[in-house]
Design brief:
about 140 residues, about 80% helix, transmembrane helix, DoxX, single chain, 6 helices, mainly alpha
Length: about 140
């Protein structure tokens, strides 16, 4: 790939992943009680803390990924969070038959998103990022 495309495509990749996380984090703030209820319905302990963690990761780290700030660590944490969310909330192996396909698709989408995040963890944010400006 020509070097001229690396920075714009890396920025676009960060934007496309952030589009998933940032609005979801805002939604969890706006519907905090519903988020806590959803976490509770999956039998997880400390649902209020879980909701706060979800907001911090999705909104806070999502914005950090978008801007390319501390990208490698941010992406690694987000990848771990995304795999955990897939396991706890899209456990297709325990889903009723009517939900099996949807939960399986969502589980594997989470794994794919984590794969993209791991690429940022390895390669960084690219030249159009806060990380690159801080190195200058």
């Amino acid at each position: 790939m020509p070097n001229a495309l690396q920075n714009p495509l890396t920025l676009l990749g960060r934007l496309l992943i952030a589009i998933l996380f940032v609005p979801s984090g805002f939604g969890k703030i706006a519907g905090f009680a519903g988020t806590v209820g959803y976490i509770t319905s999956h039998g997880l302990p400390l649902p209020q803390l879980g909701a706060v963690v979800a907001i911090v990761v999705e909104l806070g780290l999502g914005l950090m990924l978008l801007t390319g700030f501390k990208t490698r660590w941010t992406a690694l944490i987000m990848a771990i969070y995304t795999v955990a969310a897939g396991i706890f909330f899209h456990s297709y192996w325990d889903a009723p038959a009517a939900q099996l396909m949807m939960q399986q698709i969502n589980f594997y989408k989470n794994l794919a998103i984590a794969g993209g995040l791991l690429s940022f963890a390895v390669w960084g944010a690219g030249g159009w990022s806060v990380d690159a400006r801080l190195k200058s």
